[in-house]
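[step 3/7] fold_predict: job queued, chain A
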Amino acid sequence: MAKTKLHRDVEELKRHLIEKEPTHFGARDIFTAFFGAILVGLTFTLKGLLFNVSKALTVKELSLIILATVIVLTAEIYLIGYQRVKKKEERKFGQFWIKRLLTYYGIALIVSASLIYIYGLHNLAADPYHVTKIVIAVSMPCAIGAAAADLLNRY
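[step 4/7] structure written:
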């Protein structure tokens, strides 16, 4: 017995509204991620402690911050988003993950750099390397905020 169009539409609505299966990544997701990154990033940008701590960060610690950010984003993407995908054979995790990871981390870097320049923290930094260290330090909470806002809002 062939499914009617109405039956297919009801199943589609059920998947997206009741089971909350993730939709394909689009512009709405990017805008939501920007707002999440700004909201969380503002909290950390205005903390004097972060500015002082960033002075002492080494390349090893900066690398650990980036690695930790990627790990946390991967966990958020998988646990909040990908686990709800019903047809995993049609939507591979690698594709689902990479476009979200690059988008969230890219947004985090843009937002953190923008906040640092908007609030003039670059003027207080010792040199451009210190500004880079502040951007990386602030990018972690921005990335987590971007992913959380988008993933929790949608799913």
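[step 5/7] annotate
Residues 34-154 form one domain.
The helical segments are 5-18, 27-45, 48-56, 59-81, 93-118, 121-124, 128-154.
exit 0
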